[in-house]
């Protein structure tokens, strides 16, 4: 309810009336977005494959597979090609024949039925479940909601099979099984709920029609296959050598089709017949060539693959899995593409990325699995119901409150993807990664967004942002921007990247250049810091180099501003320090016509706090800080003690003895 109310009406193109969260539904969407992210980040690699053909007879050829499979180095691949081309004959190194078995399927449960319905019949899980329920209520199949894949010992398998003896599609197979004797189904999993899904009475296509018949036909064929014999085939593997390189070809011949007669889609594919040969035989090489290929990204998840992942991670039950998948489709988080593949929409992607940004456990399957384990312990009598309930509610309550407090993180992603303001945002500064212009989005929370890198950078709030002289950060090459709270307030430059990713250990997220400890950058605290703040304990007064001709220095922690040297032509922070208070000295250059210095002097260097020449030129004020979100908020007024000593860049903070502090405070007031 919270996220729906928060985002509804705020963005015009969400295309979803309900923005829902669920401990099963959201991890289900998470699987789809995780696959999408892998596809987006995939970088194809080129590789080479050596393909050889031999001619066992004049008019026939046999394609061989290279034992090395592939190599990723063109020159190495070319070397192997040159070596093998030197040999005109392929020598048979070994011939092996092995009888193999393809096992008949386990009895049918709900999850497997839904997987097949989606992958083979093209039915969505919810639709397939509705059809199965209708077939059950009409008496054609057994109860369709079951996790069991094992028939009980007293189940009348022959009785169910006899009912299918007259159906023209499988009558021959059924009668053969009844006369020769059925095979006992494989031992599966007994969940203790209901027997596997089984046809309970005969039906025709005319009776059921459409999707009803297609699902019934699959259930019946699957049941007949479970009591049929396994499929047996003979696999022949011939190993060849062409020069020093080894090649192989494999052939399969079915000896007993077994259950594949009733489920032909599981049958062993027909392959080219292998020649009769023995070790040491030689065959002429018809062709050897190098094939250049590329690795390909994974495809979007199919519904069948998603069901498998949900079952593996304990997300949902046989009854609820179709509901969760249907929810993420109906709420426009994913769209069903051809092949019933699930492609996340922008809304689905932003939701999942937002959850990851705020609290990854909201989208990971772990929290739901943990709850399921607790429920199992209750069922086994190993855990107290009330304690588990209280503990689980407490976890979700805490997660909810944290989510509410952190919603701005998701809002940033939402606005970039959906708000028309994001589309109309103005290019402001260049990204240090791609050197393209980033868009400045003014709507709260204001931020910069690079559409090329798909990165969003938070900015200080409740002020104006503009480009800072096209200067760049020496650490990451991002163009600096200037934040200002107005003519009466503070202003400072900042690097968008450093503001979000602090470059030094003693820095925190949300610090501008006036708190940056870079030792040589001309915009940093190290180069522009003057002395310890006269009010708060931890702040440093930093020269605002953009404030001329109404020069000022401002505390980088609280709202103290010191105006000085009005109409000065230039103000610079000197590397030298005051002998009395250890604050940095200031070099001031005035215009000759407006110089307040005695004797018509235009230049003077001294301490802002101690130099008697500067005393009449310094004025303390408090910035009108309208923004509670801004770092520092209202200044700490209790700080009157000693400073923390030496500050970055080699300069030191003023010592601020008590008698001097009292004198300074009295003077400024």
Q: Largest beta sheet: what is the strand line-up?
A: 1-2-5-4-3-6
Question: In CATH terms, what is the fold-level topology of the largest domain?
Answer: Topoisomerase I, domain 2
Query: Sheet bearing the most strands, described?
Result: 6 strands, antiparallel, barrel
Radius of gyration: 38 Å
Assign the CATH class of the largest domain: Mainly Alpha
Estimate percent helicity: 25-40%
Number of helices: 19
Shape: elongated
β-strand number: 23
Distance between the termini: 52 Å
CATH architecture of the largest domain: Orthogonal Bundle
Percentage of β-strand residues: 15-25%
Structural domains: how many:
5
Structural class: alpha+beta
Features:
single chain; 669 residues; alpha+beta; Topoisomerase I, domain 2; Topoisomerase I, domain 3; Topoisomerase I, domain 4; 5 domains; six-stranded antiparallel beta barrel; five-stranded antiparallel beta sheet; 24% strand; disordered C terminus; DNA topoisomerase; Topo_IA
Give an account of the 3D structure:
With 669 residues, the chain is of the alpha+beta class. It has five domains: 148 residues, Topoisomerase I, domain 2, CATH 1.10.460.10; 118 residues, Topoisomerase I, domain 3, CATH 2.70.20; 113 residues, Topoisomerase I, domain 4, CATH 1.10.290.10; 105 residues, no CATH class; 96 residues, no CATH class. The protein has a six-stranded antiparallel beta barrel with strand order 1-2-5-4-3-6. Helix 2 packs across helix 11, helix 4 packs antiparallel against helix 10 and helix 5 crosses helix 9. The longest helix has 21 residues. The radius of gyration is 38 Å and the shape is elongated. The two termini are 52 Å apart.
């Amino acid at each position: 309810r919270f996220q729906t109310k928060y985002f509804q009406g705020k963005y015009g193109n969400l295309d979803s009336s309900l923005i829902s969260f669920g401990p099963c539904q959201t991890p289900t969407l998470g699987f789809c977005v995780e696959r999408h992210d892998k596809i987006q980040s995939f970088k194809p690699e080129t590789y080479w494959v050596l393909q050889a053909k031999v001619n066992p007879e004049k008019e026939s050829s046999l394609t061989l597979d290279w034992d090395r499979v592939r190599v990723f180095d063109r020159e190495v691949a070319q070397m192997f090609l040159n070596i093998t081309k030197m040999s005109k004959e392929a020598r048979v190194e070994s011939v092996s024949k092995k009888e193999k078995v393809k096992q008949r399927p386990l009895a049918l449960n709900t999850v497997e039925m839904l997987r097949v319905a989606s992958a083979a019949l093209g039915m969505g899980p919810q639709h397939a479940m509705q059809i199965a329920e209708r077939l059950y209520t009409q008496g054609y199949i057994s109860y369709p909601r079951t996790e069991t894949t094992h028939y009980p010992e007293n189940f009348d398998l022959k009785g169910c099979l006899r009912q299918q003896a007259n159906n023209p599609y499988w009558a021959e197979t059924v009668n053969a099984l009844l006369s020769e004797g059925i095979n006992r189904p494989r031992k599966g999993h007994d969940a203790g709920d209901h027997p596997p899904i089984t046809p309970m009475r005969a039906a025709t296509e005319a009776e059921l029609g459409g999707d009803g018949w297609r699902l019934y036909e699959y259930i019946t064929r699957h049941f007949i296959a479970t009591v049929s014999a396994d499929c047996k085939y003979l696999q022949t593997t011939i190993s060849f050598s062409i020069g020093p390189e080894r090649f192989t070809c494999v052939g399969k011949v079915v000896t007993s089709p077994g259950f594949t007669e009733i489920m032909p889609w599981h049958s062993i594919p027909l392959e080219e017949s292998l020649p009769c040969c023995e070790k040491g035989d030689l065959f002429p090489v018809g062709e050897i060539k190098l094939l250049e290929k590329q690795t390909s990204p994974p495809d979007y998840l199919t519904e069948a693959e998603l069901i498998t992942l949900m079952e593996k991670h304990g997300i949902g039950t046989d009854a609820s899995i179709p509901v969760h998948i249907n929810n993420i489709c109906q709420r426009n988080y994913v769209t069903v593409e051809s092949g019933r593949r699930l492609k996340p929409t922008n809304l689905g992607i932003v939701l999942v990325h937002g959850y990851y940004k705020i609290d990854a456990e909201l989208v990971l399957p772990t929290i739901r699995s943990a709850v399921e384990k607790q429920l199992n312990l209750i069922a086994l009598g190993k855990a107290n119901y009330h304690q588990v309930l209280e503990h689980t509610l407490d976890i979700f309550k805490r997660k909810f409150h944290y989510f509410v407090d952190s919603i701005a993180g998701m809002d940033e992603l939402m606005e970039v993807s959906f708000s028309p303001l994001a589309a109309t945002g103005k290019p402001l500064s260049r990204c240090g990664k791609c050197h393209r212009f980033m868009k400045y989005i003014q709507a709260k929370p204001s931020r910069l967004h690079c559409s090329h890198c798909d990165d969003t950078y938070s900015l200080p709030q409740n002020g104006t942002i503009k480009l800072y002289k096209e200067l760049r950060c020496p650490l990451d090459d991002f163009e600096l921007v200037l934040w200002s709270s107005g003519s009466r307030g503070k202003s400072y430059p900042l690097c968008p990247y450093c503001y979000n990713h602090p470059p030094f250990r003693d820095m925190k997220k949300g610090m501008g250049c006036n708190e940056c400890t870079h030792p040589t950058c001309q915009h940093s605290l190290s180069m522009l810091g003057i002395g310890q703040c006269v009010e708060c304990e931890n702040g440093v007064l930093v020269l605002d180099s953009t404030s001329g001709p109404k020069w000022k220095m401002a505390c980088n922690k609280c709202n103290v501003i010191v105006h000085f040297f009005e109409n000065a032509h230039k103000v610079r922070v000197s590397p030298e320090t005051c002998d009395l208070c250890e604050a940095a000295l200031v070099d001031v250059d005035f215009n000759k016509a407006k110089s307040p210095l005695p004797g018509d002097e235009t230049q003077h260097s001294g301490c802002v706090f101690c130099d008697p020449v500067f005393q009449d030129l310094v004025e303390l004020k408090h910035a009108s800080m309208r923004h509670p979100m801004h770092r520092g908020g209202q200044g700490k007024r209790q700080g009157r003690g000693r400073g923390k000593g030496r500050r970055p860049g080699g300069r030191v903070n003023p010592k601020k003895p008590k008698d001097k502090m009292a004198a300074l405070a009295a003077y400024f007031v």
